[in-house]
Amino acid sequence: MSFLDDEFLAAWADAGHEPLGNVSGTVVMKTAGGPHGKVAVSLIFESGVLTSASAGTTRGADLTLEAPWQLAADVVCGDADPARYYMAGDLKVSGDMALWLELLPAWRAAGSLGSPG
After folding, report:
1. Strand order of the sheet with strand 49-55?
2. For 115, how many CA atoms within 13 A lie in the half-sphere containing its CB?
């Protein structure tokens, strides 16, 4: 299993982590520079729980995050502070900024985005 491959995504959606606040919406994460080149995944949160993680983009996503593959892996797994990299411009965010501002403190408090590891 490697970050964002099909096995990772299946484990991620089934991991049963604690809710990230009360976040609800669809988040698309786009990465580049990893072992599989450009990768996009769609994450669906309902009441703070990651209910679905799948390859590809979802039409009408509420929030889009873009980062180099290694940074995305570090942020998702809790090894890097997403706010720091957002402020530095390394983590790009577009779409529903209210969702971002709701997700960010819960994500930082949890230490990860509910990664399977």
Report:
1. 49-55, 37-46, 25-34, 63-68, 92-95
2. 18
